[in-house]
Design the sequence.
């Protein structure tokens, strides 16, 4: 239909009734919070529109994106308080406010994949609007109930050996990444996203990275890293930068969850990274104090736990009747000086299904990822591991636990028995094997081969400094001479006796001919 | 503090100011008197504005043109305000109830529907 025809049709249907509508009037504006009198029937989280067209010419009001939207967050006896989601300087006292009758939602469609959007759904990557049809997904939504879920039994591979072997994550799980600044939390999340490119397209999870309160330069750098790794074709970035108002920071993770739910309801698997929820809590505190809500511990509002619990409960593995989709959450929390007993960290630890602790000491010693496997845990456990990984990963945790016990002891003991020396050397070798470079995730089938070889003792006698080179050379040898082993493990996801026999022969041959 | 001042100011609109002041002194809130008085004046101005009906027209001559529709909408006794930016038509506002028959709003709505 041409524009002329559209206009003619609209003119024919113009209503001439004189029905009154209920409007509100702004009685006070301060710090992005607006007090509105009149619209006492407004709902919580309802969108309202500020009539910024008053006094302005028609030409001015037709400018794109000139509407200023508010979000009702406080319902009081005589007035409502709303936060302005946009330019608050355009809102004035006495301005008319209209209810929309709609709760806050974000437009989501297939075209949002590969884009960078704001928490309100506006694209900010300079590539135009989201293409294709969109559906308005509610920002706030009640999580799926018990009967609508099924058990978490499919792994989501991070590409990081230490995590996939000892702290396996399943699709539909919430696994917290927690540590001080500069310990590699975002790197773990990005490597997990990049590693999904090794998954077959049919089962590859869509990834959503939610940047909360980060520098725009960091977000731009993350986008560049994902583009170079070819991960942006299945990733969406939701960005609420450090310069954005606190309501947008508050909404960002919920917007990410809403986008994820759109795809989950279509039967797809989704991975959402919330980076980070510490800044999210601070933004919510700021907003709550401005809304005059009573401050509690550390000045956080009383419902700070509920803020994160209702967000993270939206992660789920849906039942087959509902399509079998899943939403896996990787929330990130930044601690101060390793204090995991602080308010927000303990809240989120109690909500999630496990945590990955990254420590500054380990990072500084060169153990990267700086994972403390002793206190990191996945409550889903081996249910979220392939059979192949289960067969090779069982021994590692025990080896490292024994090594940790002996590590302190060996500084003082000068004369150790052979058995103890062997355990220490084995522990050092495994620790070295588990180190991985940033941006270098390893597909699970290569991890299985690497760990199988390590368990068979091929690292014995090799200096620790040569372990990584040994692993690289061995994997190159397998790719060259026994590529069918890798493809068999990739498709079958198991280590059959035949494959194990082939690998044992390959290891023996490799050791005979290998020179560092 | 704001809530306390607002409460006192609302009491001043309902009761004699001297009585309210005496009550404030008794409770040790005498220092808030000036702020309360300012707030009460503000509330008094607003409440009048809220209840008094206003009809907004683009020009003086539109009063005759739309007199029938304005009267039908209950705005026969409304105070008239001129705002050329509404282009034409009228807006009748009484308290928190509004009837918007301005040409600007109609054109703006049409524009949004066509460009959506």
Sequence:
């Amino acid at each position: 239909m041409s524009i002329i025809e559209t206009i003619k049709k609209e003119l024919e249907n113009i209503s001439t009734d004189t029905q009154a509508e209920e409007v509100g009037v702004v009685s006070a504006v301060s710090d992005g919070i607006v007090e509105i009198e009149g619209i006492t029937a407004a709902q919580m989280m309802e969108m309202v529109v500020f009539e910024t067209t008053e006094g302005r010419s028609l030409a001015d009001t037709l400018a794109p994106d000139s509407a200023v939207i508010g979000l009702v967050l406080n319902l009081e006896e005589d007035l409502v308080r709303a936060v302005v989601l946009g330019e608050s300087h355009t809102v004035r006292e006495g301005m008319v406010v209209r209810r929309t009758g709609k709760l806050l939602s974000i437009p989501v469609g297939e075209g949002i994949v590969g884009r960078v959007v704001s928490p309100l759904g506006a694209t900010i990557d300079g590539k135009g609007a989201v293409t294709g049809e969109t559906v308005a997904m509610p920002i706030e939504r009640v999580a799926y109930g018990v009967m609508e879920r099924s058990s978490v039994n499919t792994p989501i591979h991070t590409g990081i050996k230490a995590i996939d072997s000892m702290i396996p994550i399943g699709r539909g799980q919430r696994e917290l990444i927690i540590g001080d600044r500069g310990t590699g939390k975002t790197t773990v999340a990005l490597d997990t996203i990049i590693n999904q490119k090794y998954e077959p397209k049919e089962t590859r999870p869509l990834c959503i990275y939610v940047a909360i309160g980060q520098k725009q330069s960091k977000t731009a750098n993350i986008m560049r890293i994902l583009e170079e790794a070819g991960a942006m074709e299945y990733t969406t970035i939701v960005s609420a930068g450090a310069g954005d108002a606190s309501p947008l920071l508050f909404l960002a993770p919920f917007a990410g969850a809403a986008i994820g739910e759109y795809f989950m309801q279509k039967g797809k698997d989704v991975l959402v990274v919330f980076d980070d929820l510490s800044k999210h809590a601070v933004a919510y505190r700021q907003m709550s104090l401005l809304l005059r809500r009573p401050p509690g511990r550390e000045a956080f509002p009383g419902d700070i736990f509920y803020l994160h619990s209702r967000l993270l409960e939206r992660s789920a593995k849906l039942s087959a009747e509902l399509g079998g989709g899943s939403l896996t959450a990787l929330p990130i929390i930044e601690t101060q000086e390793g204090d995991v007993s602080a308010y927000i960290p303990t809240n989120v630890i109690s909500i999630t299904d496990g945590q990955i602790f990254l420590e500054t000491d380990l990072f500084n010693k060169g153990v990267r990822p700086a994972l403390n496997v002793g206190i990191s845990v996945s409550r889903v456990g081996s249910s979220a591991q392939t059979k192949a990984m289960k067969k090779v990963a069982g021994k590692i945790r025990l080896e490292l636990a024994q090594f940790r016990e002996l590590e302190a002891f060996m500084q003082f003991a000068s004369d150790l028995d052979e058995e103890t020396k062997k355990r220490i050397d084995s522990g050092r070798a495994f620790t070295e094997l588990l180190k991985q470079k940033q941006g270098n995730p390893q597909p699970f089938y290569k991890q299985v081969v690497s760990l199988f070889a390590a368990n068979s003792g091929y690292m014995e006698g090799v200096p620790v400094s040569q372990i990584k080179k040994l692993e690289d050379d061995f994997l190159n040898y397998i790719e060259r001479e026994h590529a069918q082993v890798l493809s068999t493990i990739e498709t079958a996801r198991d280590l059959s006796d035949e494959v194990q026999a082939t690998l044992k022969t390959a290891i023996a041959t490799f050791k005979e001919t290998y020179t560092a | 503090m704001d809530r306390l001042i607002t409460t006192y100011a609302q009491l001043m609109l309902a009761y004699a100011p001297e009585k309210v002041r005496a009550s404030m002194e008794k409770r040790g809130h005498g220092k808030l008197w000036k702020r309360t008085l300012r707030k009460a004046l503000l509330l008094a101005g607003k409440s009048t504005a809220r209840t008094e009906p206003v009809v907004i027209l683009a020009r003086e001559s539109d009063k005759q043109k739309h007199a029938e529709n304005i009267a039908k909408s209950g705005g026969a006794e409304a105070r008239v305000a001129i705002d050329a930016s509404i282009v034409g038509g009228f807006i009748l506002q009484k308290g928190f109830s509004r009837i918007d028959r301005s040409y600007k709003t109609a054109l703006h709505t049409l524009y949004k529907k066509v460009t959506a």
Notes: The interface with chain A takes residues 46, 50, 69, 72-73, 83, 85, 87, 93, 95-101, 104-108, 110-111, 113-114 of chain B (CB under 8 Å).
